[in-house]
């Protein structure tokens, strides 16, 4: 039966009619398709749309509020609510929802109808009339049940009240609902009755405000007052999130309990061919997959999400989309929308989107590379080195501030990407290991060394090719007359580095593919803001009574920060054993497991930094720690229980049936005097595998039962969970051994070959 279900799933996927949608054209009568720029943001209640629908004084008041100059008053809120209701209803909206990000790496929404009943009295009788309304108070806040979301002990179960509050910096938008209707989404934060952050976004907004304030203070210390060149008024982090994911056939997915419950395969052996030929990366995108991605890109464009790139990733059935960089707060919302849209559109194409960091053992896992930089209200990238980084003091100040932040708080960044699922990927020669270091490249390393030592940049130390880059600008001669010269970045890339400088930004490569990027970006923003506070104080001390710090003053501060942060810089192979030894000599922490990483959130230096910047209160930080540890333990226990069920109900019965078939065949042959040595030999191979698998599974079952009674989550995560994970690996090895022996007709689960190559 299991084999028949697998075969039917494969046949159905090959014979089904592929989904086709009609992309909009310029005119109703047809003509060319609309370009992405023509449909971009059409489902977003943008500032441009708001300016057209609001009275000018109301719109001006809202813009002032966005700039932090005043609070949002009731008149303005009511006017915006009415305008967005009219706009949304024109686009078939029947409901609205406050859309927020609770502490579970997902999004949450509760739909409310615009419907309101209005009572009037005619001749003494009440007459009820139905109308559509949306008030300013409904826009500004809602009240979901806070007791049903993770709080890490900040709230008791009976303390249910919580509030969602409109995040005015993230525009409202509509998404398609059922039967031609749509839903108005109001991006929001989520706080408790006492104002504690119960979500990912509140702390991100706090970190952004602190980073902005401190970065502007540093810039004002080095920028002379000039009427022709106004001083910087705001600085914000920019972010580009490269989203990796797998797509597999949905019918086959439904036959895998492990994928449905845990997001990853707990069993399954590698096929003879997977990614070892290196032919999938940037290869031709399968037709069904391309159709799904194209539809997702269309929906995302309407939502104002600027997807730029799509391609095959390294593993079979693995893909990636990447956006144009945006302000970090908006980029976080857009990444959550990207995951949601990919998930929904995949279903329409009878595919399943897998965001787990390691859904298939033995091939590359998935990450979410976060490309982070700093930009000003003048449009300047503060991490752009320009053609002569050694004289670009503003760049050097912000570069070394970031280096110092990662050096001081690399362990908290490691904690920010820690999870049970990401543990299967980190350090597996496909993603950065547990030692946080920074890659800058040959040129910038030489620049920092030269500044530290007070000398000119040594061109000889850069090598012949980089000398050519410096002398000729950034042009690379390809030595073929028919090929044009190309521009060249100042640095190469190091794919083993967890935090690499890639031209004018840093790429934080260790973030997990299914997690919200909000938390790691919050920690990064906070660490950099804290270091900029130290830099601000150092510049003030260095400049003395002068209005602004001179070049010499700035260089003195830069030198000091270079010296302090030097151990974090590493240019080599982050996977090598030599680097682990060298990192230990440098005093850099090596944190291999998430169960060891979580505690670094509470390390005194990190906790003080997060409190000093105003991003976390002590209670919020403690709660975040407890939520992460509890989720880790729950994830491991759910995986263990799922594995036990699959082995007992599917794998062992299949093995028993195959042994019975072999035994009956051997007995039948013996009855007619035919040698049954091959069947007996295979039986002898299977028997110890089956016995060991049964014993190990019973042992894991007993361990899981004991774990339920362990109340101390630290003990549970660091001891019992590690024991359970080791037992699960032993069970998997035995079960995968059986997979290679048991008849394919009896094997109950779709195999990797079917999952990888049936899309």
How would you portray this structure in words?
With 759 residues, the chain is of the alpha+beta class. Among the domains are: 162 residues, Roll (Ubiquitin-like (UB roll)), CATH 3.10.20; 127 residues, Four Helix Bundle (Hemerythrin (Met), subunit A) (Up-down Bundle). It is 47% helix and 15% strand. It contains 23 helices and 22 strands. Strands 12, 13, 14, 15, 16, 17, 18, 21 and 22 form a nine-stranded mixed sheet that branches. The longest helix is centred in the last third of the chain and has 54 residues. The radius of gyration is 29 Å and the shape is globular. The chain starts with a helix and ends with a helix. About 1% of the residues have low confidence. GO terms for molecular function: glutamine synthetase activity. Pfam families: Gln-synt_C (PF00120), Gln-synt_C-ter (PF18318), GSIII_N (PF12437). Belongs to the glutamine synthetase family.
Secondary-structure blueprint:
Layout: H1 2-15, E1 25-27, E2 30-33, H2 36-39, E3 44-45, H3 47-53, H4 56-66, H5 74-90, E4 93-99, E5 111-113, E6 115-122, E7 125-132, H6 136-140, E8 141-142, E9 162-166, E10 172-176, E11 182-192, H7 201-222, E12 235-249, H8 250-253, H9 257-262, H10 287-302, E13 307-312, E14 318-323, E15 326-327, H11 328-348, E16 351-354, E17 368-376, H12 393-416, E18 438-439, H13 442-453, H14 459-471, E19 475-476, E20 486-487, E21 499-501, E22 506-508, H15 518-543, H16 551-565, H17 577-586, H18 594-597, H19 604-612, H20 618-671, H21 677-707, H22 713-739, H23 752-757
Parallel strand pairs: 4-11, 18-21
Antiparallel strand pairs: 1-2, 3-10, 4-5, 6-7, 8-9, 9-11, 10-11, 12-14, 12-15, 12-16, 12-17, 13-14, 17-22, 19-20, 21-22
Helix pairs in contact: 4-5, 7-15, 10-11, 12-15, 12-16, 13-16, 15-16, 20-21, 20-22, 21-22
GO molecular function: glutamine synthetase activity
GO biological process, one term: glutamine biosynthetic process
Family: Belongs to the glutamine synthetase family.
């Amino acid at each position: 039966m299991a084999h028949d279900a697998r075969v039917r799933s494969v046949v159905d996927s090959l014979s089904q009619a592929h989904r086709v949608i009609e992309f909009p054209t310029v005119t109703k009568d047809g003509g060319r398709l609309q370009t992405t720029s023509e449909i971009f943001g059409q489902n977003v209640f943008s500032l441009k749309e708001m300016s057209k629908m609001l009275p000018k004084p109301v719109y001006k008041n809202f813009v002032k509020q966005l700039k932090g100059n005043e609070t949002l008053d009731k008149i303005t809120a009511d006017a915006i609510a009415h305008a967005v209701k009219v706009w949304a209803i024109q686009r078939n909206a029947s409901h609205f929802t406050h859309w927020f990000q609770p502490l579970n790496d997902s999004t949450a929404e509760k739909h409310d109808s615009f419907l309101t009943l209005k009572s009037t009295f005619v001749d003494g009788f009440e007459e009820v009339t139905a109308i559509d309304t949306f008030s300013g108070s409904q826009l500004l806040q809602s009240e979901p049940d806070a007791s049903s979301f993770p709080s890490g002990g900040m709230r008791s179960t009976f303390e249910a009240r919580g509030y969602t509050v409109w995040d005015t910096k993230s525009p409202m938008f509509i998404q398609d609902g059922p039967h031609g209707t749509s839903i108005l989404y109001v991006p929001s934060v989520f706080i408790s009755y006492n104002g504690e952050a119960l979500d990912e976004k509140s702390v991100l907004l706090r970190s952004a405000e602190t980073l902005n304030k401190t970065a502007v203070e540093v810039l004002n210390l080095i920028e002379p007052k000039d009427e022709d060149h106004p001083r910087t008024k705001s600085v914000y982090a920019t972010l580009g999130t490269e989203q990796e994911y797998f797509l597999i056939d949905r019918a086959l997915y439904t036959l895998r309990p492990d994928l449905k419950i845990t997001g990853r395969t707990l069993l399954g052996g590698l096929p003879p061919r997977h990614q070892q030929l290196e032919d999938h990366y940037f290869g031709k995108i399968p037709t069904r997959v391309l159709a799904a991605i194209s539809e997702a890109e269309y929906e995302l464009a309407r939502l104002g999400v600027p997807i730029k790139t799509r391609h095959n990733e390294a593993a079979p059935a693995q893909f990636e989309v990447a956006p144009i960089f945006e302000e970090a707060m908006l980029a976080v919302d857009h990444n959550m929308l990207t995951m949601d849209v990919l998930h929904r559109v995949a279903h329409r194409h009878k595919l399943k989107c897998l965001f787990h960091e390691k859904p298939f053992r033995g091939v590359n896992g998935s990450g979410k590379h976060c490309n982070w930089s700093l930009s000003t209200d003048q449009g300047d990238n503060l991490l752009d080195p320009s053609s002569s980084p050694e004289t670009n003091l503003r760049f050097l100040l912000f570069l070394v501030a970031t280096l110092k932040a990662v050096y001081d708080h690399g362990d908290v960044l490691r904690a920010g990407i820690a999870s049970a699922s990401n543990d299967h990927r980190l350090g597996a020669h496909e993603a950065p290991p547990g030692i946080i270091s920074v890659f800058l490249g040959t040129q910038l390393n030489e620049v920092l060394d030269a500044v530290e030592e007070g000398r000119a940049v040594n061109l000889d130390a850069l090598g012949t090719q980089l000398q050519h880059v410096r002398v000729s600008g950034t042009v690379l001669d390809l030595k073929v007359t028919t090929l044009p010269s190309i521009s060249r970045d100042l640095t190469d890339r190091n794919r083993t580095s967890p935090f690499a400088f890639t031209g004018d930004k840093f790429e934080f490569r260790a973030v997990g593919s299914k997690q919200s990027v909000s938390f790691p970006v919050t920690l990064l923003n906070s660490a950099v803001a804290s270091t900029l506070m130290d830099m601000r104080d150092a510049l003030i001390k260095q400049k003395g009574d002068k209005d602004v710090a001179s070049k010499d003053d700035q260089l003195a501060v830069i030198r000091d920060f270079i010296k302090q942060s030097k151990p974090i810089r590493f240019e080599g192979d982050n996977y090598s054993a030599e680097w682990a030894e060298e990192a230990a000599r440098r005093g850099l922490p090596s944190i291999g497991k998430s169960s060891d990483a979580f505690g670094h959130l509470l390390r005194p230096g990190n906790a003080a930094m997060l409190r000093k910047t105003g991003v976390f209160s002590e209670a919020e930080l403690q709660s975040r720690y407890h939520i992460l540890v509890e989720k880790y333990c729950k994830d491991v226990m759910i995986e263990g229980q799922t594995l036990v069920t699959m082995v007992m109900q599917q794998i062992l019965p299949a093995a028993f049936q195959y042994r019975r078939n072999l035994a009956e065949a051997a007995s039948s042959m013996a009855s007619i005097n035919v040698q049954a040595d091959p069947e007996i030999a295979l039986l002898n191979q299977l028997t110890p595998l089956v016995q060991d698998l049964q014993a190990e599974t019973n042992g894991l079952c007993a361990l899981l039962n004991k774990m339920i009674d362990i109340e101390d989550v630290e003990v549970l995560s660091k001891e019992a969970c590690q024991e359970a994970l080791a037992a699960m690996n032993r069970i998997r090895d035995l079960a995968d051994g059986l997979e290679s022996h048991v008849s394919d007709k009896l094997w109950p689960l779709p195999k990797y070959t079917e999952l990888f190559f049936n899309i």
